[in-house]
Write a sequence for this structure.
């Protein structure tokens, strides 16, 4: 089963290929892209142990020169120090402007590799091979790259579109259950903001909390619909000048929760799930959508095994303060993505601190 999707941009358009065993086919893709001979594969130890040999062998079989660099796993390592080590590896292997970085891993690896590619020699090629559901449907597509600052997530970054995104659904078999559920948060996001049909498919599924309960067809539909949604939005707005901001649904409060808990208590998908629940309730309070739709969203989040409540140890004032440093702040006002109906959302800067506080308090009381 093969899905080929296109991200159509004014410049640097690219393909998303979704197919089993696509890692072993990378040599053909590299030849068709007409990139330089030198390749640097970036991964973490666990992922590289699983898939590194297959990827390296396929690259070498296509007569490309390949080296690799292992970065530590985890959001807390998504720093400029890690990028410096990646630069050192690129220098040691004499990577040139025609060379290619390949990100083999989840969203953290994809973000760091993309940022290194965007800034090494003022920009070299990057190919994304995501190995987590979250990275497959979100982080690998759209060209957002970056690292964290101690004061906030992804405050340092650049837009740098990949040359190609290769997605092999079979690698999800080794993904921990918690990480699979984290990816489902982004899938639900697409259903709420863009694709009502996807949302209904998720509602109709018997279970969504573990990969083994998904049919091959449903998994393919989830990947294809989610990637298509991201591709549609990015094609219309490459650098978040307008429409693309809706992709941040759930991320405003979600990023604040991640930052305040030191990227250790909840993972990204869990934080986004909580953020969507908060944003949904804000949307109800402000008359953007109905209580029924908000409940449908929360029921789907819970069905996926994800949280909807704000960690009780967090102070509301601390959350509000952290929101001020969010990337989406404009003219001092925090911009929230709020749903209008299942499959449609808008961006507003009219959400007051009082509304945010009241909703967060409600979400903490339920925990």
């Amino acid at each position: 089963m093969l899905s080929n999707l296109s991200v159509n941009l004014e410049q640097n358009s690219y393909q998303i290929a979704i197919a089993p065993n696509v890692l072993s086919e990378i040599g053909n893709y590299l030849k068709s892209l007409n990139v330089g001979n030198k390749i640097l594969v970036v991964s973490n130890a666990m992922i590289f142990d699983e898939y590194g040999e297959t990827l390296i062998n396929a690259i070498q079989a296509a007569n490309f020169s390949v080296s690799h660099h292992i970065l530590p796993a985890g959001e807390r390592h998504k720093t400029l120090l890690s990028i410096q080590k990646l630069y050192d590896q690129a220098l040691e292997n004499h990577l040139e402007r025609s060379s290619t970085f390949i990100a083999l891993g989840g969203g953290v690896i994809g973000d760091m590799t993309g940022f290194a590619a965007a800034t090494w020699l003022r920009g070299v090629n990057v190919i994304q091979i995501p190995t987590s559901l979250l990275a497959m449907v979100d982080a690998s597509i759209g060209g957002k790259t970056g690292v964290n600052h101690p004061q906030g997530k992804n405050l340092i970054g650049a837009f740098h579109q990949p040359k190609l995104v290769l997605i092999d659904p079979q690698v999800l078999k080794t993904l921990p259950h918690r990480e699979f559920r984290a990816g489902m948060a982004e899938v639900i996001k697409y259903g709420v903001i863009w694709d009502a049909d996807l949302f209904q498919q998720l509602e109709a599924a018997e279970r969504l909390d573990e990969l083994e309960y998904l049919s091959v067809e449903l998994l393919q539909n989830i990947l294809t619909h989610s990637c298509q949604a991201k591709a549609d939005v990015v094609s219309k707005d490459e650098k978040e000048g307008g429409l693309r901001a809706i992709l941040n649904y759930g991320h405003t409060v979600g990023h604040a929760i991640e930052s305040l808990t030191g990227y250790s208590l909840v993972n990204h998908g869990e934080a986004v799930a909580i953020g969507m629940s908060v944003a949904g309730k804000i949307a109800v309070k402000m008359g953007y959508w109905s209580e029924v739709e908000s409940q449908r969203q929360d029921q789907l989040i819970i069905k996926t095994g994800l949280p909807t409540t704000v960690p009780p140890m967090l102070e509301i004032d601390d959350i509000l303060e952290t929101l001020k440093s969010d990337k989406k702040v404009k003219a001092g006002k925090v911009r929230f993505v709020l749903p209008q109906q299942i499959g449609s959302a808008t961006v507003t800067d009219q959400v007051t601190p009082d509304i945010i506080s009241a909703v967060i308090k409600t979400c903490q009381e339920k925990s």
Summary: The domain at 181-365 is CATH 1.20.1090.10 (Dehydroquinate synthase-like, alpha domain).
